[in-house]
Each structure stands twice: as structure tokens, then as C-alpha cells.
Amino acid sequence: MLYGLYQLLGWLTFIIGAPILLLYSICTGRYREGLVQRLGFVGTEWKNHDRALRIWLHGASVGEVLLAGLLIKELAVILPEAEFVLSTMTEQGMEIARKQAGNKVRCIYAPLDLVGIVDRAIRRIRPTVYICLETELWPAFLLQAKKSGSKLVILNGRLGERSFQRYQLAKGPMTKILACFSMISVIRPSDAKRFISLGAEPGKVRVLGNAKYDQDMESLASKSEEQYRSWLNLHPGQSLLVAGSTHTGEEEMLLRVFQDLKKATGMQDLVWVVAPRHLQRLPEVEAMFKQKQVPFERLSDVKSSERKTDTILVDSMGDLAGIYSIASYVFCGGSLVERGGHNIMEAAILGKPVFYGPSMNDFSDAAELLESVGGGFPVKGPEALTESILYFMDHPKEYDTAGLRALEIAATQQGSARKQAELVKEVLNQ
Known about the structure:
Radius of gyration: 23 Å
Number of strands: 14
Mean pLDDT: 91
Number of helices: 20
CATH architecture of the largest domain: 3-Layer(aba) Sandwich
Largest sheet: 7 strands, parallel
Number of domains: 2
Helix content: 40-55%
Low-confidence stretches: none
Strand content: 15-25%
CATH superfamily of the largest domain: 3-Deoxy-D-manno-octulosonic-acid transferase, N-terminal domain
Shape: globular
Strand order of the largest sheet: 3-2-1-4-5-6-7
CATH class of the largest domain: Alpha Beta
Structural class: alpha/beta
CATH topology of the largest domain: Rossmann fold
């Protein structure tokens, strides 16, 4: 009955909202790309349509799409005959998907989770295996995919306490949905316990770690450290503060940190690089800088001409890891505001200690790992961040040790993507 109500409300929302969305799309240009695919029209140009081993991975947004890239690379090694479909829900996710896609990967926007629409997409793609990344559970799609004969797998599953409490309110339907999966790979034992509590069969749940931390070092930083130092025109010993994946409200708080640090002895030439999580926020951040009368430049401009200011705004995808590699101090955003944090292991695997705020719910496992060895530093607010950086500026040996420990613990997470790919092969052989 709950599933029927879900579909009824979904279709009513679609019928009422579709004309409004269409008009908005026509007027603004947003969401125009992929609109047809979201309605299940994902094309039919597939070779060996009935016989191919086709693996469909779904990643909601940028983080999951990057994860999909790691998994596809491992799957292609052990299943060289496989074709891949990668679906996402956001424009930024699609941009990343296309950048990392190879010849065997087709990138599409995920269909709306409505019976009829998902059936059309499943009939056209006919996945042998559908892989749900993390906990992106769409009931209509999963039930119809199972009904069509596809095998379903969750990889890199996570289930935080808040999500677990919400799912418990619909435990009956959740048990039915989880029964669709052949195997469920989760990050931590606590995730396994919660999935089992919601009805997953214990024998189908494996703890295989977090593949998001299983970094491909060659592709992580596409350019050399020397290239980024040259672009930023950093002289030997010049300090660089990098704020990665920031959200609304954080840039203004971090501006105070930057200005306070520049007053410290030996930090007058400090350079600050800010990388907003979502590039559509660039005008918002630029407006804040202008209102505060802070001189700044975009990274794309600095790449083509000499840096003239001490504040650089990253306006491109794929540069953050390279900038992390030359950073003196790294702060990971989404953590001073209630966004759940971001992947702090991206900096740790480069040998950088990481600072972050109190909101790290989505990456609490990474925070626990780094803090356990002294390679991660939670701060309550901007003032505490300033104090922590100044402390380590006066204790460089202690800071260097923290960087080595961050690298060592991050290195222990390598190999999870291969284990999860092997799990998919195991499901295919069942």
C-alpha cells in the first residue's frame, strides 16, 4: 500500500509539475539536457543487445560518479567483455562522468522513479547487473529491474544513524526492497548492522571498506606539482591555504581565517585558494569577495597570466587534487555548515593533514581513521581553525609527522574497489 501511495503521489507530482519545469527549462536553459533520458528514452543503439554483459552503475552526483570511475576501472580488468552504463542525476555529475568515461561506458541521466518510465529505460538497456552506489534506493526502479531478470548489487553502502531511523519508519517496504539485492557491500560493521536490522539477509552483507578512499594516484592529480606551483607563482617556502569543496556561508568564515593568518609573523605572503563544491555558486562567492573588497582572481585566469592577488577562486573541475598536493594547509568544506562534510582522504593520500569542521556525518569513518593516528584535526569554528594552523606553524616537525600518519592510514584503505569489483563477478557466477 505504501508503494502504491508512493507511485500515486509521484505521478501526481509529475503531472502537475512537468509543465512548470518545462517552462522553466525553456526560459533558463537549465535541465534541458537529458530531459528525454529522464523520461526513460535512453536510446537503443546497443551492439549485441541480447547477449552482452552490461553493467549499469548509478551514482547520484559528483562524489558517486568519481567512485563509479574507480569501480569501472577495476571491473573492466576482471570482466573485459563487459559494457558499462553510468547514470547520474546532476549536470555536474554528468560532466565528470563524460570526462572519465571510456569507449565502453555510456553516460545517461537517471530515469524518474515512476513505473512506466523506469520500465522503458530498463527494456532499452537490459542490464545484466545494476549497481547501486552507496544508498541510492529508488523503489520503482529496483523492483522493476529485479522483475526484468537483472541482478542487483549495492556497493560502498553506507547507512548513517539518521537515515537508519527514517528507513525504520517504513521497515516493511525496506525489507522487500533489500530482498531484491544479490549482495550488499558496506563500508563499516555499523553499516552492516543497520542494513541487517532493516531486513537484509546477513549472508548477503559484506564489509569491504570505502572505495571512495581507494584513489588512483595517476588520475587524482592530472598535472604535476611543479605545474601548479608555476600557475600559482609560489616561491620556495611560501605558504598556501586551500579550502576545498566549500558551501554557502563557509567562504565568509574562512575569509576571516585567511585575514587573521596573514597578520601572523611569517605568513604575510600567504596565498588562499578557494574551491566551491558547486561551480554554479561562483557568482555568489565573487559577489561576497567584492562586497568585502577582497581582490581575487579565477584559477583559469591565473593559468594564462601571472598571479596578481593572494586569493584564487577555482572555477574548473579536476584541479582540486593537484592544488591539494602543493598545499601547506588543507581545510575540507561542507563541515562548518550542516552539509555532512566531504572526502578528506583525497588530501590525506597526498600526505596532507586535514582540518575540518564539526559536520562530518557523511564521512565520519574517514574522520575517525585520521583522528585515530593524529592526521585529521576537527575544529569547532573559524577561530579554532586559525589557532590550530598557527600552532602547527610553530611546530613544523609535529605537523610533518601528522602528514606522514595521514598518508599511512589513507594507504590502508587502498584495494577496496578491487574487492567490490570481485564481489560483482561473484554475483555473476552465482
